Amino acid sequence: MERTTTIKNVIFDVGDVLVSFRYRDYMSDLGFDDETIEFLVDNMIFTDFWKGMDRGEEDVDEACDHFCSLYPDLKDKIELFWSNIEDIVGEFDYSLPMIREIKEKGYKVFLLSNYPDKLADMHWKQFSFLPEVDGYIISAKVKLAKPDPKIYLMLMDRYRLKPEECLFVDDREDNLIPARDLGIKTILFTSYDEVNKKLNEML
User: Fold this and answer.
1) pTM, whole model, 2 decimals?
2) Tens digit of pLDDT for each residue in 76-131?
3) Which of 143, 126, 37, 19 lies closest to 81 in space, CA to CA?
4) How many C-beta atoms lie closer than 10 Å to residue 190's C-beta?
5) Quick count: other Cβ atoms within 10 Å of Cβ 174?
6) Which 3 state secondary structure label does DSSP give 84?
7) How far apart are CA 120 and CA 141, in angstroms?
8) Residue-level pLDDT at 110
9) Average pLDDT of 46-61?
10) Is 134 helix (H, G, I), strand (E, B) or coil?
11) Integer CA distances (angstroms), 171 to 2, 125, 154, 186, 200, in order
């Protein structure tokens, strides 16, 4: 890959890039059987309500009651899920060293994340890499979420970034498409080793 010298800023997604969104392991830790885990993955995690929380349109505090009303037979498990929600993410060991290495090379680092606001308030203060970054946008805080092009433009405007000077790393191809359309270079996150190799080639 040809080294790109115009990049000045690296933008990272957070979930499943810098931290593990470990919903299956989390529910297993709570003692849920496989059938229950898969049901709640399909009917709680990957739902319009959860996407609404990412956009700041649904209240995290109402999530437990919402899903309990839909699935009363699972009320006890749903309540247990939401009462221990701080454990649903875990920071990857590589995240802080990777960001520090990028910063030491002279680049700025930003975060662009789809994340419910009250979960961000709970989780983000625990991330060791957060003090290292130069800025971030949390989707629910601004009532926009990837892949809406407006949230990428908001990041550019807020921190006075030029798209052609930015590199964006995300684990979802659909989130990379609008970034590329704006002139931002992109890397699809598949593993730390692969992304670290590409970062070293491009930075």
Assistant:
1) 0.94
2) 999 999 999 999 999 999 999 999 999 999 999 999 999 999 999 999 999 999 99
3) 37
4) 10
5) 9
6) coil
7) 9
8) 98
9) 97
10) coil
11) 22, 22, 20, 11, 18
Dihedral sign, Cα of residue 148, residue 150, residue 154, residue 160: positive
Residue-level pLDDT at 5: 57
Structure-block tokens of residue 8: 């000045």
Question: 44-54 burial, b if ≥16 CB within 10 A, otherwise e?
Answer: bbebebbebbb
Q: Please, what is the angle between helix 95-104 and helix 192-202, to 10°?
A: 0
ω into 147 cis (within 30 of 0): yes
Give the helix/strand (H/E) hosting 89. strand 89-91
Count of other CB atoms within 10 angstroms of residue 181: 12
Per-residue pLDDT at 25 exceeds 80: yes
The span from the CA of 44 to the CA of 27, in Å, is 12
Give CA–CA dist 168/146, Å, rounded.
12
Q: How far does CA 45 lie from the centroid of its chain?
A: 14
In this prediction, residue 156 carries a pLDDT of: 98
Sign of CA dihedral 47, 53, 57, 61: positive
Pull the structure tokens for residue 182: 């704006």
φ and ψ at residue 194, rounded to 5 degrees: -70, -45
